[in-house]
Amino acid sequence: MKDNRIFKACEVDCNKDGWFVDLLPENIINIVNSDCYWYFKTKKECKEFIRLFENGYSGESAYHIVTKE
Questions:
Q1: Which one-letter DSSP state was computed for residue 36?
Q2: Whole-angstrom Cα distance, residue 59 to residue 38?
Q3: Contact (Cβ atoms closer than 8 angstroms) between residue 16 and residue 10
Q4: What is the value of pTM for the model shown?
Q5: Which of 10, 14, 50 has its CA nearest to residue 63?
């Protein structure tokens, strides 16, 4: 099943590789807010980030764990 929160970075910036996770709540329709985007090199990292986030980690903590940054 496709997760609509994950999309290719080139859909937002044609000069960018990788993937974005959009954490903007789904009930907000037709709004693009790049402040809610988290950038990752791979789709696998996106999925792991979402898993951690949904299990109670803050966005910053989940990002750090996934990217090792």
A1: G
A2: 8
A3: yes
A4: 0.81
A5: 50
Rounded-to-integer distance, Cα 36 and Cα 11, Å: 15
Quick one: tokens of 51? 């898993």
pLDDT tens for residues 3-35?
A: 888 989 998 888 989 999 988 766 555 555 556
Only one residue has tokens 């329709």, namely: 29
Between CA 59 and CA 22 the distance in angstroms is 11
Task: Yes or no: say if 25 and 5 are a contact pair by the CB < 8 Å rule.
Answer: no
DSSP notation for 1-25: ---TTEEEGGGT-TT--SEEEE-S-
